[in-house]
Every structure is written in structure tokens, then in C-alpha cells.
Specification:
Blueprint (H helix, E strand, L loop, with lengths): L3 H14 L5 E5 L10 H12 L4 E5 L14 H11 L1 H11 L8 E4 L6 H6 L4 E5 L3 H16 L30 H4 L1 H17 L2 E4 L7 H8 L13 E4 L12 H12 L6 E5 L8 H14 L2 E5 L26 H4 L4 E4 L4 H6 L3 E6 L3 H9 L4 E3 L6 H12 L2 E3 L16 H12 L4 H17 L4 H18 L1
Parallel strand pairs: 1-2, 3-4, 4-5, 5-6, 7-8, 7-10, 8-9, 10-11, 11-12
Bound molecules: uridine-5'-diphosphate.
The site of uridine-5'-diphosphate has 20 residues, from helix 13 and helix 14.
GO molecular function: UDP-glucosyltransferase activity
InterPro entries: UDP-glycosyltransf_plant (IPR050481), UDP_glucos_trans (IPR002213), UDP_glycos_trans_CS (IPR035595)
Pfam families: UDPGT
Length: about 475
């Protein structure tokens, strides 16, 4: 969701900001048995947003083989992307003789598709929905791998802090994302994505200059890695782009927002772990114990781990009492609410929310800061551990519950109720430093996208570049 929803918002932004541009969004869907949320979401966006200048083209469905589901969600998605090359080729052939195609924008995990755009002489742009610091880390690891012949896996297992060009502070090796250190499952794919980034004409990134000063300076000053492949592509920090579309029915949303309406301002902590987040039962119990002990108000998005398939996304529990400690729901009835999927942006906008226990997916971070809500960090997968580190150590808008939790770590220790209590108590303190910093970042994020702001200007530059392609 953090990729598809923001890509659709990017498309809308293009047509709002320039009357000459029109967009066709190519849609490839995950089957419902893998992800029950994103397919219906995309259908509703198509229904509500299609126009003369914003068209959608659904690529023909393909039949996944059992191998696709044999490893991880990322593996499944990658297989799906690879199979779309010929369909996209067909689509581009069908467009010949029509409007001039000035750019082919690919999601950061879809760079294999850039080859097809190349065949047609269309410049490719990557839409990067993670922080600039992580973009720098990916490019750095790819540089080490391809040009220094260094096995980046050596970083793992080391105890010395590591310096990377895009992070202001040395990084503890135990928080390096598995996608960059696990050679068997992820590394090859991520190195390949990074190779694609270097070949792009530009990188459109969902961040803003005031949030990631250090990483963007490192990128623009070409300090990321002095590759023999020449300078890095232009970067366009145009965020925050927020997911404004509905992903639930009115009545599902109302159940949550009506409850929030009854809570005092800044009193509720939101716990939500993203579109792919679920936790094992014993970990869920520790969170429940912590919430019981602290006594603070909470809204907890609790979703069930995939049941039958390595590539599946989490789903909804049929009954929360099966998994929560006995009596928890009764004891906390007056101060807390346990739900499944939440309308996250709407929830964060509510004045009752005072803090966010988050997996630190980048979209969730941007959404939280847009409303000035401080974060307590609990990363799960992807690049979230380094995001959490950056938020706590460098940006100062988050307190730590954990920085190194990794759902794919077989030996992952349980985060204790005590650690969770400490983190949430710090998060909800009135007048804390993180609350203050989050309020400052709220103002900066809004200023960045208003006329004359850094992201506004970066977007103008991007459109000018695209229109120059029309002249070629
Ligand atoms: N989201 C939501 N409700 C949920 C979980 C997630 O609306 O219950 C949205 C959230 O607002 C964000 C996206 O899904 O826009 C998640 O993106 P993020 O990058 O934070 O994490 P990911 O899901 O990619 O791990």
C-alpha cells in the first residue's frame, strides 16, 4: 500500500500541477489470496479518479506458479514484475503514433521494467518511497559489491559502528536491513534495483529537503560513492506525498473516528505496524500487558500473521479474545480499542492522538510528521531498522522501543512489556523533546509543499525536465 497509494497520488499531483501532462497508470495486481487490501483499494481509486488526463490500464492477469509463493512477499512481487515485461512492451507498441511519451515512472522495486522503456527510447524515472538516507545506503552497498568487490555481508556480525555517507551518525551493524545483508534471500535483488537507480534519468523521492538535510546533501555533493559509472541521476525530493484515498467503507472508518471523538486531546497512543505488519502471539501478549499496566488510552491495529503462504500479507482476526490475555478487552474497554486495518492518515489527523507506535515504514513516518505526531519505534522488516535509527538519533522526532527488531530473525528475542511501557510512557510525556521536534517538522513538511517551498520547487523542476524530453 505504501507504494501503490503514493504512486497514484503522484499521478494526481502531475496532472494538478501541469495542464499539459497526462498520465496512464499501468496496474498490476496481487491476487486477493496474497493481499486482500490493495486490489479493492486500486479498484476504488480507478472508479473515483479516472479522467481524460488520468487513465488506468490494467495489465492482463498472470498465473502465479507455486514457486512464486515459496519465499517472501518481495520474491512474489518480483516474479510478478518480471512477467509484465512483454505486456508492457505490447502496451507501448499500442501507443505508437499517439501522444509523445515523455517519461516512464517506475516504482523503486520495479526497475527491471526500465529495460522495456529503454527499448522505446523513453527516459525512466524511479519513484522512491523510502528515505534518501536509505537510497544512499543501497547505492553505497551496490558500489561496494560491483566496484570494490567487497562482500557487504562482512558488515553483519561486526560490532564496530559503521560510517555510511548518507547517515549523519555511525550505524550499529545489528540494525543493517536484512535486504542488504542476507545474500540468499534479498541482497541480489536489492543490488540489482540500485543498479537500475543509477541508470535512471531521475529519482523522484518521497521526502523533503528539511527532513533529510544530511542524506540529500551527501547525494547532491556526490559523496554517496564515487562510482566509475559517472554522476548519480538528478534527485527530486517532492514529498511528503500522502495517501489521501479511502481504503475502507464509511462505516468501518466511522467506528474508529467516533470512538476517537470521545477521547480527550493528545491522550491516545496509536499502535499500527503498516500494511505488512503482524506479530507472533507471545509478542502480542507483551504489548497487551504493557498497555494494561500503563493505563494510557490506545487504538491498536492488531492484524493476524499470514496463515498458509510465505508471500501472503497479514489479515484480520475473527476474534481478538483468542489472542489477547484473558480479561484484557474487558479491563481496557473504557480506555482502549483493538481494531484491524485503520484509516491511518485520518486517525493521525485526529486531535485525540498523542503518539504513534510505528514500524517506521516511510509513508507512516511522513504521515505522522504531517500531523506533528511523535513516534515510538518498532521496526519489523525492509529498511525500517535504519529508518528508526535515523528518526531517533538524527531527526529527533522519535523515542526508541526497539531499533533492531527484525521479524525474519529466527532468534529474535521478545520485546518485553517493561521496554514497551518505558517507550510509550516517554512518547506520551507532555512537553517532551520529541513532541516539540515533531511539531516543528509538521510546519516544515507543510511549508515544503506550498508554493515556493522546497518540494514544490523540486516538482516544478521535474515537470520542466519532463517537458524538455518532449522536445527531443
Ligand atoms: N495503512 C493504513 N492502515 C493500516 C496500515 C497501513 O492506512 O492499518 C497505510 C498507511 O497509512 C501507509 C501505508 O498503508 O500509507 C503503509 O506504508 P508504510 O510505508 O508506512 O509501510 P509498509 O506498509 O510499506 O510496511
Amino acid at each position: 500500500m505504501g507504494h501503490v497509494a503514493q504512486m497514484l497520488e503522484l499521478a494526481k499531483l502531475f496532472i494538478t500541477r501541469n495542464h499539459q501532462v497526462s498520465i496512464t497508470v499501468l496496474i498490476m495486481k496481487l491476487p486477493d489470496y496474497i493481499d486482500a487490501v490493495s486490489g479493492p483499494f486500486v479498484d476504488s481509486v480507478i472508479d473515483s479518479s479516472s479522467s481524460e488526463r488520468l487513465r488506468f490500464f490494467e495489465l492482463p492477469p498472470v498465473d502465479p506458479t507455486p514457486e512464486w509463493s515459496s519465499k517472501t512477499r518481495g520474491h512474489f512481487v518480483n516474479r510478478l514484475v518480471q512477467t509484465q515485461k512483454s505486456q508492457i512492451r505490447e502496451f507501448l507498441i499500442s501507443q505508437r503514433g499517439g501522444v509523445k511519451l515523455v517519461g516512464f515512472v517506475v516504482d523503486m522495486l520495479c526497475t527491471p521494467l526500465m529495460d522495456v522503456a529503454d527499448e522505446f527510447g523513453i527516459p525512466s524515472y524511479v519513484f522512491f518511497t523510502s528515505p534518501a538516507a536509505f537510497l544512499g545506503l543501497m547505492l553505497h552497498f551496490q558500489f561496494l559489491e560491483d566496484e570494490c568487490n567487497e562482500d557487504v555481508k562482512n558488515c553483519d556480525g561486526s560490532t564496530t559502528l559503521l560510517s555510511f555517507p548518507s547517515y549523519a551518525y555511525p550505524v550499529p551493524p545489528n540494525i543493517l536491513p536484512m535486504v542488504l545483508v542476507d545474500r540468499d534471500t534479498w541482497l541480489g535483488r536489492f543490488i540489482d534495483f540500485a543498479r537500475g537507480y543509477r541508470k535512471a534519468k531521475g529519482i523522484i523521492i518521497n521526502t523533503f529537503a528539511e527532513l533529510e538535510i544530511y542524506a540529500l546533501d551527501a547525494y547532491n555533493n556526490n559523496n554517496i560513492s564515487r562510482s566509475e559509472q559517472g554522476p548519480l541521476p538528478s534527485i527530486y525530493p517532492i514529498g511528503p506525498i500522502l495517501n489521501q484515498s479511502k481504503s475502507q467503507s464509511e462505516s468501518e472508518e466511522a467506528e474508529i473516528t467516533n470512538w476517537l471523538d470521545e477521547q480527550p486531546p493528545n491522550s491516545v497512543v496509536l499502535l499500527c505496524f503498516g500494511s505488512q505488519g503482524s506479530l507472533p502471539t507471545d509478542q502480542v501478549k507483551q504489548i497487551a500487558i504493557a498497555l494494561d499496566n500503563i493505563g494510557c488510552r490506545f487504538l491498536w491495529s492488531l492484524r493476524s500473521p499470514p496463515q498458509s503462504n510465505n508471500a501472503q500479507f497479514p489479515g484480520e482476526y475473527t476474534s481478538y479474545s483468542e489472542i489477547l490475555p484473558e480479561g484484557f478487552l474487558n479491563r481496557t474497554e473504557k480506555k482502549g480499542k483493538v481494531v484491524g486495518w485503520v484509516p491511518q492518515l485520518k486517525v493521525l489527523s485526529h486531535e485525540a492522538i498523542g503518539g504513534f507506535v510505528s514500524h517506521c515504514g516511510w509513508n507512516s513516518v511522513l504521515e505522522s510528521l504531517w500531523y506533528g505526531v511523535p513516534i515510538a519505534t518498532w521496526p519489523l522488516h525492509s529498511e525500517q531498522q535504519v529508518n528508526a535509527f535515523q528518526l531517533v538519533k538524527e531527526i529527533g522526532v522519535a523515542v526508541e522501543i526497539t531499533l533492531d527488531y527484525c521479524e525474519r530473525n529466527k532468534d529474535q528475542p521478545i520485546v518485553t512489556a517493561k521496554a514497551i511501557e518505558n517507550g510509550i510512557s516517554k512518547l506520551m510525556e507532555t512537553n517532551s523533546a520529541v513532541k516539540h521536534e515533531a511539531k516543528i517538522m509538521k510546519e516544515k513538511s507543510r511549508a515544503s509543499v506550498t508554493e515556493g517551498g522546497s518540494s514544490y520547487l523540486a516538482f516544478s523542476k521535474l515537470i520542466n525536465e519532463l517537458l524538455k524530453n518532449a522536445a527531443v
